[in-house]
């Protein structure tokens, strides 16, 4: 089991190194240093603030996803959210979602499966939001001539994401409405695998789906939609502020295009923190609009940094404040 986890980790490192090497071949380090020194870091500070506003709205949305279980205070939800995103930057395989669920469950005496189930719904809201942004981009963004490959890649990525999204929603719907039949079907599909695998997974699915209980109040539904819109608005503003810091002024549809590329990039299995894949996606997205290579790389470095270092610092602070040790987080990784 340990070997398998190490294999995934080193494969992610290899993917990140591959994309970083591709990026490094484009860099003139003297020009890069000059571009970084000339940036207007007031906009970068705004980008960091907008990133944390999006995290705060994620905590608010999470509150409404859990409201059927308990009215959880934001003083618990926001730190757990920050700790989870810190863990996503530091641990492989997006373990931050498990850390986020564990942190809140321990603090508020909630059942971990119920908390984790709420995060699955949280991600479904994100998936729907990204699909909506992608639709807007496909119908409004006019890519420069000769960018047919980029347009095709965007359409193919959107189609794959849409199909995956529909498959997950359908599976969860069947699991909730026809729990026993769906679990039986899962057991049938898992027959070729070792029996201990199905013996572990099927009870977990039953426990997980039992934890999905959404409020039926219209006001709560409106709050979920409004916070989702706010989350992605502030993500978009963070991208736009970083571009402005390097005096890059693009239409809002271009910023949406770059944001979507970054969402696709973090889905690629890579090293913790999405190093390499994130940078290369940002660089390629800016190149589409004729932004010089040195500026594109500078933007990629700063944009990644604004989402990486501040949340780690904030996450370490909340770990200290809540008296959570790094050993506990490693325990979550092993438990998974």
List the helices and strands and how they pair.
Blueprint: H1 2-24, H2 29-38, H3 41-65, H4 74-90, H5 96-108, H6 112-140, H7 148-177, H8 179-189, H9 195-210, H10 218-245, H11 252-267, H12 277-288, H13 293-321, H14 326-335
Describe this structure in words.
With 336 residues, the protein is mostly helical. The protein has a domain at 40-177 and 211-265 and 297-335. The protein is built from 14 helices and no strands. Helix 4 packs across helix 13. The longest helix is centred in the middle third of the chain and has 30 residues, at 148-177. The chain is globular. The termini are close together.
How far apart the termini lie comes to 12 Å
Q: Which quaternary structure do these chains form?
A: single chain
| Unreliable spans | 1-5
Overall shape: it is: globular
**What's the rounded overall pLDDT mean?**
84
| Number of helices, counting only DSSP H or I runs of 4 residues or more | 14
Order of helices and strands: HHHHHHHHHHHHHH
Provide a short characterization of the protein structure.
The chain is mostly helical and 336 residues long.
Label this structure with key terms:
single chain; 336 residues; 14 helices; disordered N terminus
């Amino acid at each position: 089991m340990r070997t398998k986890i190490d294999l995934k980790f080193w494969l992610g490192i290899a993917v990140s190194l591959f994309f970083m090497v591709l990026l490094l071949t484009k860099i003139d380090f003297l020009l890069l240093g000059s571009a970084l020194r000339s940036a207007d870091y007031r906009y970068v500070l705004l980008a960091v603030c907008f990133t944390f506003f999006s995290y705060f709205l994620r905590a608010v949305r999470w509150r409404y996803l859990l409201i059927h279980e308990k009215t959880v205070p934001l003083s618990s939800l926001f730190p757990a959210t920050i700790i989870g995103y810190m863990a996503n930057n530091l641990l492989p395989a997006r373990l931050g979602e498990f850390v986020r669920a564990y942190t809140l469950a321990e603090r508020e005496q909630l059942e971990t499966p119920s908390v984790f189930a709420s995060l699955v719904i949280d991600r479904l809201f994100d998936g729907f939001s990204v699909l909506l942004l992608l639709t807007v981009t496909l119908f409004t963004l006019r890519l420069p001539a000769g960018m047919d490959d980029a347009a095709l890649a965007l359409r193919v990525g959107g189609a794959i994401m849409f199909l995956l999204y529909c498959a997950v929603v359908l599976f969860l719907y069947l699991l909730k409405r026809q729990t026993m039949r769906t679990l039986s079907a899962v057991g049938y599909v898992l027959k070729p695998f070792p029996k201990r695998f199905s013996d572990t997974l099927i009870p977990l699915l039953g426990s997980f789906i039992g934890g999905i209980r959404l409020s039926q109040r219209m006001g709560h539904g409106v709050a979920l939609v409004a916070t989702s819109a706010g989350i992605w608005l502030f993500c978009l503003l963070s991208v736009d502020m970083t571009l402005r810091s390097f005096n890059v002024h693009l239409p809002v549809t271009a910023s949406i295009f770059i944001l979507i590329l970054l969402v696709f990039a973090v889905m690629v299995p890579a090293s913790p923190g999405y190093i390499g894949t994130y940078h290369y996606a940002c660089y390629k997205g800016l190149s589409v609009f004729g932004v010089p290579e040195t500026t594109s790389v500078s933007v990629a470095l700063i944009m990644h940094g604004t989402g990486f270092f501040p949340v780690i610092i904030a996450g370490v602070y909340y770990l200290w404040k809540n008296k959570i040790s790094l050993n506990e987080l490693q325990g979550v990784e092993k438990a998974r």
